[in-house]
Amino acid sequence: MSFVVAIDGPAGSGKGTVTELVGNRLGLVNIDTGAMFRCVTLAMLRQNIETSETEKIEKLLEEIKIELVKENQVQKVFLNSEDVSKEIRENAVNNFVSEVSTLKVVRDKLLKLQRQVAEGKDVIMEGRDIGTAVFPNADVKIYLDATPEERARRRVLQNQEKGIASTYEEALENVKTRDKIDSSRSIAPLTRAEDAIYIDSTNMEISEVVDEVCKIIEEKDYAKNEI
Question: Which whole-number Å values give the CA distances from 63 to 57, 107, 180, in the listed order?
């Protein structure tokens, strides 16, 4: 019997960082669904595949291999056995990933993969539709949010740490564009599940958010075990 924690929220809300830290603290398997979409996006960019070229995308999805591997408490992302952890966070992918994520063929393929990876495990999974589409019956659902301005500030700092050049203006524009695309797409749009616990992290430190999420999970897990 598995235990599933779903963390949803917009771009730059801190989902990835919080999910990784909570997973490490509570011993949950961390599944970064955003990295999966970024891998598909990178593969399409490398092969110059347009979003309208459905047959080429289907062929790519049949051949692609995505692996999430933790090494020394650091999660790395491999695309066809190549470490692309840094490349999938660069601007070329940032500017295209939301468009790719609207494609039904891509979402269907990755939804199956996400469920397969989580099968039989206690997991914490982050994305934009985990609590609404991937795992609508998740044991814990959290919607993590922050203002666009704060999310842009965080994204710039994150990029600096990874050696990726970006400006605050670029980051803010990217955040707002992705919000619009993610929330208005016809397939699994970004939305807060009715039973998700809302956390506004705008004025919170990462450690405070992690503590809050861990408290919610531990209370839920305890209640589950008492039944």
Answer: 10, 16, 31
pLDDT for residue 223 is more than 60: no
Entry pTM: 0.78
Tokens of 213: 């999420």
CA distance 91 to 2: 36
- Structure confidence by residue, pLDDT tens digits, 153-192: 998 998 888 888 889 999 999 899 989 988 888 887 889 9
Beta bridge partners of 142: 7, 197
**Is the alpha carbon torsion for 199, 205, 206, 211 positive or negative?**
negative
Q: What are phi and psi of 7, to 5 degrees?
A: -115, 110
Strands 4-8 and 140-145: parallel
What 8-state DSSP symbol labels residue 130?
I
